[in-house]
Amino acid sequence: MVQDALLLNRLNWDDRARVHGQDRVYDSESLVAGASSLTEVEEEAIQQAVGSVAGLQVIHLQCHIGFDSISLARAGALVTGLDFSPVALAKAAGLAQRCGVDLALVEADACHPPTHLFGCFDLAYATIGVLCWIGDLDAWMRAAHDLMRPGGSLALVEIHPFVGMIDSLVPLRLDFPYSFDGPHFLDTPGSYTDPRAPVQSTATVQYAHSLGEVVTASIRAGLTVRWLREHTAAPRDYRGDLGAPESDGRYRVRLGGEPVPMLYTLVADRPV
């Protein structure tokens, strides 16, 4: 069952990688021209975790087509991007070459990275929409722990499980659980970049993970949680249905007029 889910998801992400790169989420030409893909939330997570990445060994888990990997390398990090999609890694390699950036790229399951990478990294970095693909959250956190050297830090920015429950805002409809209850087999056309994108492998398997489950898994893996922040505003419309940003340029999901948590940031350390 686990291998079937992994295969379905890899085929889907192979297809997504083929169509991603010039859209509302991934603007390759702007990246090549020098733009950073890191948002203020990700910059804050990195600042809280390690301050500056200059000169640090960084592993970018589930790096997809490498936008953040390239941005981190431009900031002076020595970056290894890890992803299970060979199509995504090939596109990341091409983009890195166009940007004049050196990346090490590794094809692997984020829950089972190569053991020769264990203890090599000052920072493990993962962001936005990574954990919903992970059936074994404990294994993912153990992998992050093992990849870091003692004293290293994890910077995780993720979609909040509360807003992940919401299928539609008007009318309000919930269609996903808050916490883990096993695999959810979905068949969704297109991609989050464009619902009309020509993605052929549309079947996926996704999982819910509550905030408490994420924190507990990090502790069980041997990490020390140092910073946890929930964000009621986001720098981008990660849902794709929020329309224009509010007057401060940020996006919010409001229920009864009050903003609900949209993202969270977890910073945790591997003890020395």
Number of domain units: 1
Task: Specify the CATH architecture.
Answer: 3-Layer(aba) Sandwich
What do we call the CATH homologous superfamily? Vaccinia Virus protein VP39
Task: Determine the number of helices (DSSP H or I, runs of at least 4 residues).
Answer: 8
Biggest sheet descriptor: 7 strands, mixed
Estimate the global geometry from the Cα principal axes: globular
Give helix % range.
25-40%
CATH topology: Rossmann fold
Structural class: alpha/beta
| The first-level CATH class name | Alpha Beta
Identify low-pLDDT runs: none
- Proportion of beta-strand residues: 25-35%
Structure summary, number of beta strands: 13
Distance between the termini: 37 Å
> Strand order within the widest sheet?
3-2-1-4-5-13-10
- The gyration radius over C-alpha positions equals 18 Å
Write down the overall mean pLDDT. 97
Give helix and strand order, one letter per element, not per position: HHHEHEHEEHEHEEEEHEEEE
